[in-house]
Amino acid sequence: MFSFFKKKFGAAPTVSSDEQSSPQVDEVVAEPAPLPVAEPTPAAAAEPAVVPAAPAVLAEVGAEAEATETPEAPRKGWMDKLRAGLRKTGSSIAQVFTGTRIDEALYEELEEALLMADAGVKATEFLLDDLKRRVKEAKATEPAAVRGLLIDALSDLLRPLEKPLSVGEQTPTVMMVVGVNGAGKTTSIGKLTRHLAEAEQKVLLAAADTFRAAAREQLGVWADRTRVEIVSQEGGDPSAVTFDAVTAGRARGCDVVIADTAGRLPTQLHLMEELKKIRRVIAKAQDGAPHEVLLVVDGNTGQNALSQVKAFDDALGLTGLIVTKLDGTAKGGVLAAIARERAVPVYFIGIGEKLEDLQTFSAREFAQALLE
Question: Which range is the signal sequence, renumbered to this chain (predicted)?
Answer without folding.
Answer: none
